[in-house]
Amino acid sequence: MSAATLEAPGAALAPPKAESRRAQGRLPLRRLVTRAAALGLGLLAWHLAASQKLDLGLVTFRNVPTPADVARAAWALAHSPKLGAHVGASLARVLGGFMAALVAGIGLGLAIGRSRLAGDLLLPPLEVLRPIPAVAWIPLAILIFPSSEASMVFITFTGALFPILLNTVHEAEAASPRLVASARSLGAGRAAILREVVIPAALPSIVTGAAIGMGTAWFCLVTAEMISGQYGIGYFTWESYTLQNYDDIVVGMLLIGLLGMGSSVAVRAAGRLAMPWTRAGGRS
Amino acid sequence: MIRTALRVVRPARPEAGADPVPAAARPVLAFEGVGFAYDGRAVMRDVSFRVAPGEIVALLGPSGCGKTTILNMIAGFLAPTEGVALLDGRAIAGPGPDRGVVFQAAALFDWMTVAENIAFSLRCAGRPRRERRRVAEEMAVLVGLAGREDAYPYELSGGMRQRVGLARVLAARPRVMLMDEPFSALDVQTREALQEEVLRIRDRTGCTIVFVTHSIDEAVFLGDRIFLLEDIRAGRFERFAVDLPGPRDAPENRLAPGFLSLRETIYRRMRHHG
């Protein structure tokens, strides 16, 4: 920042920033057309391969439904009561695991980032657990938790925890010493520094961690549902395979993608609402 | 012969920049034989001075000369390992809002509006919302930010951000305002405007100010007295009294004969000791 201030003092920083934002927000029409055409071509290739039952030896499209089959199946599912039950079950599990991870990740992250003792106590065990993929937890989770519902929420929690935790630790440690000194010289105690300075300063990074965590939460949930679920969108996808409803497999996949994307967008939107000071691309 | 550095503790004879004799006015701030050792190594030794109420003292010297160490002791971030640092006759123990610090890059809380930044010390002291708003508005007027109370720092220019930094410290009604190279990251015009603003603020509030700078011009224009830190390890620094015509905030002072000659004297002295 200081280098930029030396070159372009005062308010001179604002205009170029605003311009580049506009350029990012709205693509020229020609590029939009190109991008839409690319999607169309992809669909066309899928349609041709599936309808011609293309067999390349290494891969075969014999059992792959065409886009039209998938659209019909999606339409049917949209009008069936099953949709609400599956989506509702998955959303409840993801929200449960994600919220638990949010509370634990931010809480542990702040403790580790701000207290040496907490860091020494908590970091080594967490570092041992961190490289274990959430999916590898599934057998043990089924043994530990009497209800399969709880074991799936736990798997989701495991997936979401680490991105949130690590982003929180990093920013809590990096809290600007100058800001902390400022706060102290204005009369802030330890609790006020944490509440008024460290947490708000770490918030942008926590939101990023939460958005990544939301993505991993869906990834882990779907896997867990395929193995031990009853209801849920992962279960639906796997069930469609075992019942040979091949059209529904792709419907399930697309639904998982949509839900995952939608909830990451929701997390980021909630983050922006909570951080009015970064709106319009302010310094973070 | 120019190398005869003056001892701080016992100047051979009263000179121009000597501490004003505290006849009636007790010093706001006093260092008595203050030393500081870090890792067993003496960084500062035997520093003594007194600052009168309403005075502006400039700590001048190249980086690493120890001027920020003195400021940090007044702020309470560092404790003397020798001697004593007194505020209103009481030993300084830890940081407090009666000695707020204005930092170089303003160090604003980006997540708070201008008004919330300014009233931060009142919030820490548990003052009610209405009082915080009233004080924030008063201080915004004082530093020339009226009407921008609800802006966020990212919406402000560098100079305006530093005005918020000043207001945030002043809102606590400090005994001493401390400034750590507050304007060195700003462009010349903004810097000079803010220097003049600081002089006006002193006139209006009677606030005592100690500031650190490596700019001779800034020290001469702003300071009532200048402490040129030559060898703080040996407790050696030289004091200069600034004698400029009032009103002190007049930009013409930058070209006054007194300004230019003192500037030259200090420049020569610094070169000889560099």
Automatic annotation (TrEMBL), chain A:
The chain crosses the membrane at residues 32-49, 91-113, 134-157, 249-270. GO terms for biological process: alkanesulfonate transmembrane transport. This is Aliphatic sulfonates transport permease protein SsuC. The gene is ssuC_7. It comes from the Bacteria. Coiled coil: none annotated. Belongs to the binding-protein-dependent transport system permease family. Gene3D superfamilies: MetI-like (1.10.3720.10). It is found in: Cell membrane. GO terms for cellular component: plasma membrane. Residues 87-267 form the ABC transmembrane type-1 domain. Probably part of an ABC transporter complex. Probably responsible for the translocation of the substrate across the membrane.
Automatic annotation (TrEMBL), chain B:
One of its GO terms (molecular function) is ATP hydrolysis activity. Its EC number is 3.6.3.-. Keywords: ATP-binding, Cell inner membrane, Cell membrane, Hydrolase, Membrane, Nucleotide-binding, Translocase, Transport. SUPFAM superfamilies: P-loop containing nucleoside triphosphate hydrolases (SSF52540). InterPro entries: AAA+_ATPase, ABC_transporter-like_ATP-bd, ABC_transporter-like_CS, ABC_transporter_ATP-bind, P-loop_NTPase. PROSITE patterns: ABC_TRANSPORTER_1, ABC_TRANSPORTER_2. CDD domains: ABC_NrtD_SsuB_transporters. It comes from the Bacteria. SMART domains: AAA. Residues 29-256 form the ABC transporter domain. Transmembrane segments: none annotated. It is an enzyme of class 3 (hydrolase). It holds the Pfam family ABC_tran. Belongs to the ABC transporter superfamily. This is Bicarbonate transport ATP-binding protein CmpD. It comes from Methylobacterium dankookense. The lineage of its organism: Bacteria, Pseudomonadati, Pseudomonadota, Alphaproteobacteria, Hyphomicrobiales.
